[in-house]
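Write out structure tokens for PepSY domain-containing protein.
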Amino acid sequence: MKAEIVRTYKVVHTWVGILSGVMLFIAFYAGAFTMFKPEIGRWAEAAPSALQGASSPVDPLAKAFFATRDKAIGSAVLVLERQRPDHGRMRYTDRQGASWQVTLDAGGRLRTVAAQTGPAGHFVDEVHRNGGLPLDGAVAEPIIGMVALLYALALISGVVILLPSLVKDLLVLRIGANVKRFWLDAHNLIGITSLPFHLAIALTTAGFCLHDWVYETQDATIHAIGKPAGAPERARGKAAPDASADWVAPSSLLASARAISASFTPTELTYRGLNGPKAQVNMGGEDWSGHMRAPRAGFMNFNPVNGQLNKGISLLPHRQNNWEASLSAIFALHFGSFGGTPVRLAYVAMGLLGAILFYTGNLLWIETRLRKNRQLSTPLPQPRHVRWVAALTVGLCLGAVSGLPLGLVALRWQAGLGLDLPGIGLAVFNTALGLGLLAAVLKGAAWAGYRLTFCAAVATLLVPLTSALAGLFPGLPVGKPYSLDVLWIDALSLLGAAVLLWMALRVRRRARSGELHSVWRELDAAMAPLPSAQTHSSRISSHQTASNQMEQM
């Protein structure tokens, strides 16, 4: 391959990576958390009250609820107990946005209490989908979609760069004094071995984040052909007041689901269109033997009047046509919604390795542009743009690593104290992000590097410590009985804290005794001697050499 082609692709790869690396780091790191989104939601919830933890037989509950429901309720969800799927609780959201839970009391009357909402899972998902941008999802997601396209371009150009030395350098990881060579080997190793995963994530992310633009364009062009201007929408009638009285009982729908698929485990029944003529029951459930369309669910859609399966809009693993199965496979590749816990753990590892991929890419860019001269005993001043990229990389990435667990702990304490602080998780995350950036910009990447890594280790350790305090001291606001379904959260957080602590010690050693001519070396500028004339000329020569090298890149 011609050197000019490789050089062109290297420029593309470098600048695409620099422009999108930090956002992708945050998205991938938070994406690893989303693999246990439901468990995180339960971890951060307060101990349920006796009424919130109550459940009722599903048939009489559904009959009583729909007989007396508020006509303004457009949908309601019957949440099933895992151990007793014939028992559950009804949930709905009123016009003011408040969530309510309904069960039956001892006399068979409806009993309504405030529902636990579990915002922690939504918090990590929002950070993941927005890439850490402090913007509304409608604004942030299209930006992330365009970043994902750049990400795909970076992947392709990275492969082209590596092709000339692919066989020689594919599985090589040289650990030694040459830091740049180590980071290059690590970057290439992670990038090539996980290339299919990254391509799938890049393309599906672009599709998820940009599909609204695609649909709007289709509506304005393709779908508008042949439609008269100003054509009124088809009027919909209203359901009869007692229409739900003849609906099929939930137990019958559950029996139908078991007959259709023995591997499908229903978890909830969502009743939609309650105040319209086309009511539906969307039964969500898990089937890890196939590709599920949602992160934790496949779907069966029933007609509540006759109990018939609406095959055209059901998304059940192993029961879809070729087109639907292909779409579900694409969704499942992004969500990791197949294969159960082993696949989710693999996605956690791939998400973290993806974050490392973007971090090492920025480190390589920085190392390549450092001014170095081993004959000098005083440090060379590094270019301003190199110092800025180093500060942005360290401050934002490590700020995000601290902010995610701190946001979760804040949500756990908020729930335990019974406070209502909307957006507290994101507020804590953005504060950690801002403080990390401020420290790195004002004090430099070397000063902030190991300190922020240590802060990230402590913040991550707070997750299992909170669980331990909750179990040992049930009288605390966060106290509640320990549940094994959150064990993976505590175990992975404990492991992550240990790794971050080890990294903090390594970064500290480099900051104190590493290479002199580096943005990662912590120096006291006030104690550095003034450069002599000979030193000054050496610096100029070194600067010219570095500039020539940069132009060749």
